[in-house]
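Self-study notes.
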Amino acid sequence: GLFVTDYFTRTPRKLSPFRSFASIELFHFHIPEDTVIAVWNLITFKEQGGTFGDQCPDRSITVYFRSGAPSVINPLHTHFPRDTAVPGSFALTLTWTLPNRTTGVFNVTSPLPGDWFLAAHLPKDEGKISVKGLYEECQYLFQPQLIVQRLVNIAVLYPGYVTEQSMAPHNRSCLYKVFVPSYTSRVLVEVLRCRGAEGCPLWLRVRAKAPPLHNSTVLDCQEHTPCQLALDLPFWQHWYYVLVEKHPGVPGTVSFQVIVQLTDCSRPSLARPPFLPSSASMNMPHSFGSAGGLVLGDSPPPASPNGTKHPLPIPTTSPAGERCWPVRPTLRNELDTFSVHFYIFFGPNVSVPPDRPAVFVINLLPVLDSGGVLNLELRLNVSSLCGENVTVFGCLNHEVPLTSGDNTSVTCETDSLAGFLLSVNATASLSRLRIPYPQTGSWYLSLRSLCATEHGFEPCTNVTAEVYLRAYLSPCINDCGIYGQCKLLRTNNYLYAACECKAGWNGWGCTDNSEAFSYGFQLLSTLLLCLSNVMFVPPVAIAVRSHYLLEAAVYIFTMFFSTFYHACDQPGIVVFCIMEYDVLQFCDFLGSLMSVWVTVIAMARLQPVVLYLLGAMLLSMALQMDRHGLWNLLGPSLFALGIMAIAWTARTIRRRHCYPPTWKRWAFYLCPGALIAAAAVLLYAFVETEENYFYIHSIWHLLIAGSVGFLLPPRAKPSRRLGPLPRRKGCGYQLCVNEQEELGLVDPAVASINSICTS
């Protein structure tokens, strides 16, 4: 055949350590029909500071592949919520072959067409809290590329018509495809009039949705006469591929005929008619294939290039159990993103008769619905059983309903079909099923009622069970509970939802409490973070005693908002918020930086209010730009230290000796305060992690408040050369004007002060 190669690529993205599904990077691809091979080229490289990260450590990268929906992964081996079905996926671990780059290749032969999803992440780290901008972080970038090779002009088989084929000596196989519409219970593929040098040296392989593989359903025509391959319960509205393969080493030309017959389960005594008015009556796609669609009227379809098609008579009998029951549709009601309710006409209470199943269909839209959770709930009305020991079984299957002819069967699986089983009875009247990231398309729910006897389950007589049925699509499982947050995520144009757990809870629905924080631990951490701010009371008292009223107001502001910010910032249930979280965070950060600013300005012995206003404006601007950026926060602090250094240097030059002048001030106040502040900064920048946050950050509060108490300068004393002002006797008042204070010179040691008293 003729092959066409397509190439797809995605933008490189930075990978993150795995904490939950919200921390993975998801990539969405679309594989076209008739693809015979798909090759993923997985490129990973390191970066540090805008260059190649040769010095970055090697960290393994795990990549997950799944067709139809994102992978449901569990690398931490946590527990899933009850009644949750976990679909499988394929995982691949990449190792480094070069210092800063590695490449992996993942091949899929005859992949399923449609949506494919790749999920990638780094291993879980120790949870260190790093200051943004303190050092160049190692980044691990991942870029997947997809190369597909697909066949074009695959010959199409029409049900009920014979296709003649001659396989030349240099050819090994012939590939065909046939479309299976809805309400088809059986596909029969037969090879006729096979003639070769050694009988019929052919293998017959059939597979749904994609070309057959070596492990697909196979039949050796040399050992089976007639060469017929039957598939029961085929997938509806899909292509089936038929591969006729020649045995190796067979000389000469092999000629044969291929015919496909479809059994219509809505009319069990008839097969699909060979002539139809149009392709729409068979629910076939408009792009039917290389042979073209069926023409209008009763004219036969066009002949294939290598043979003609002849209609065969329609059989009048069919095997038992091929009858299908009416499928009741559901009404789709979209409330929000991944919030869809499926209502049953004349429901939600449905009746399950004893002699036939009740079948319902739930249609999930492509791409739009695969990023949520499909929820199904069955509740049995016990009063409708009339005292009988009735069990209602429900089978949820994808793309075809499971309507077995065996009434006593309680399984939802066949050789080629997998499903989910639900059951309710008088003792267990409620059953739930959750499917995270379900595959899109049609999901069929078949309900049957059976009575339990000594010999097993048997069909009931004259008992119609009533069941409450609820089906809906939700973003997350139980909205992630009280210890999680359901996040709506986006990758390019694809939306999906995932839980982000807190307070040590893990799992897909934040229900795994193996590492959860107890209530006492949550209360202790909250109290430590909040009450450690009481350490600001001594600096407030010192500031008031030294007449630093503006500084005292800033310290009170910091203490208040830091206390209530940490009360609102807790991950568990011990949470108390007096304002919006963003407002509390801004005020806490602003108060902390303003405390540093006003303390340094006070140490510089500068009183102009313009410096305080300048600091408030600069810090507000920096916090608005980036609250966690290192230089946005460190810049104003360094600017304040520069002002203090200039003021101290100027005084030292004028006085011609070191300022502050006393060694006691350096030994008992400045050096201890500076050491305490440096220790606090080192703890905050290099020691703090997610596990020790509550007590390391509490120590940070204590050290910062303690350093302020040491660094805040004492109240300026008047000069000893100033004696008491003489008081003029007589009536009236005395107005004293200090010329130096009017000029803004607050240091009495700079010059002599002359006071003028006027009555």
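Second protein, same conventions, sequence then structure:
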Amino acid sequence: EPFVADEYIERLAWRTPGGGSRGGEAFDPKRLLEEFVNHIQELQVMDERIQRKVEKLEQQCQKEAKEFAKKVQELQKSNQVAFQHFQELDEHISYVATKVCHLGDQLEGVNTPRQRAVEAQKLMKYFNEFLDGELKSDVFTNSEKIKEAADIIQKLHLIAQELPFDRFSEVKSKIASKYHDLECQLIQEFTSAQRRGEISRMREVAAVLLHFKGYSHCVDVYIKQCQEGAFLRNDVFEDAAILCQRVNKQVGEVFSNPETVLAKLIQNIFEVKLQSYVKDQLEEHRKSDAEQYLKNLYDLYTRTTNLSSKLMEFNLGTDKQTFLSKLIKSIFISYLENYIEVEIGYLKSRSAMILQRYYDSKNHQKRSIGTGGIQDLKERIRQRTNLPLGPSIDTHGETFLSQEVVVNLLQETKQAFERCHRLSDPSDLPKNAFRIFSMLVEFLCTEHIDYALETGLAGIPSSDSKNANLYFLDVVHQANTIFHLFDKQFNDHLMPLISSSPKLSECLQKKKDIIEQMEVKLDMGIDTLNCMIGQMKHILAAEQKKTDFKPEDENNVLIQYTNACVKVCSYVRKQVEKIRKSMDGKNVDTVLMELGVRFHRLIYEHLQQYSYSCMGGMLAICDVAEYRKCAKDFKIALVLQLFDTLHALCNLLVVAPDNLKQVCSGEQLANLDKNILHSFVQLRVDYRSARLARHFS
């Protein structure tokens, strides 16, 4: 523990009798002092003893340090001597090794010709046996030494190739015959080993056959036997993947060039099994059923490319991507060359059938529609002329637009885009996709939507028709919904195929032209508003009576507003709701503003036709207030402002003569033409009284 002086003194005082630290003892300073003095003397003696011990240890340490330093110096000298000996030994070893290598080279130079001579002697011996026509050597008669016999006959076969035919024709034929027999035996041995599953024996035989011409036949036999029993299920693609995976594990243990053997197996599978399967599946429907043919082609090509992706995991050589692509192309080349023509032909006939089936279900015979361009349509809408479609026709409430038809057409086109993406060459993909898009535009936009719009326009009744049914808004509503679906398919399925090609601008322009042409025709449908106004006129003419605003009994008027007002407001609210459902975006506000302005003009002109008593004027104000409530449903500021002003004008029908000028100078009427104000004042039954005329003038 660390030394603390205070604690040490305290313990010393505690142990000393009379130190005063223990309870019950009298403090004795002299005794304590005496104890301290004695203890100090003991400490001094102890200090001197320890000091002497320290000095002795220091001297001993210095002596040992000198001895250690001397010993280290001696070891360093010994190490230097040992290092010098090591260098000398290393040089000697290097010298000896050089001598040994040189001697080895000399021995090899002597031994190699000797071995060759021995080998040549053996070959000459075996060659003589063939010359004599009798094979006596054990290597040729013992079936267990077939490996050695194969090595000898392979070398003799090479030698025989160099011999002149006229002198050695017989021996050459014997060697060739033996070469062929051994080759057949080795292949047979390989086949048997493969059937027994003896991988090591297969590897030995394959290594021997590697130098024979029949090595490729050995590989063919291996490939053939691998496929025995491998294609028993209906799914040839899955069977092929499993087979290749199994062979991939085994082929490296058998052959020295496993990637070549595996590639040859895959080539055999593609060119024999898959090509035959694809041909059977496609040729059956190629001429008789285009729909099934395209489905099968897409399915087979997809499954083949998926199989190719799985095979990419294996080692097939340097450029396996190109190798597999060529195999796929060799199978499908004859089908892909004219794919797009089959696709377009099928899409055209299928789309026409879908439309015709729909029109037949409606018992409708399609009429020929105008072929004028966009500029012609714009000129017709500018002049507000009637459509040149002949007399108005009655569609009986039919819009001739079907969501089921649209979904079928879009589904067929979607599948066509998917097939196009998969089956088209990358360089032809944008062009082919554009052709499919053109088919969609022709049958969906032109033959279905555009035809329905033309028919709807032709079915718009004249403005003076009574009880006319306005079905054109239903056509607009459905056309709007359908075009949203068309636009979604354009973005989801066509854009990815053409986004990086020049065809993008062409497709966008075609889409823009279609939209513009339809919008022009929808604008021409504004004639529907004339029909709405015409219906309101019929309601007002039939329901509004002159006595409504000049009641016979001024004191007995029980109604809040006229019956004509009720029916007109009810009709207008229905049409506003219908317009909101039929259109979207800014089109809603544009059409409602046009209808609201015409609605205001109609009510304004209608009110000008009557004379108003005091109570009749109050009733007119109530009617206009109701019309103004109806105008709020339009949610168009201009329309509401017009009816606010009309309501203020109606106040001129009931205001006291003395207050006419004050009312006319009010905020809402101050900016109106004086003739308009005068025309409303003239409608009062008391206008001709001198007092009223004087006040207004």
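Instructor comment on the second fold: The first helix runs from residue 5 to 15.
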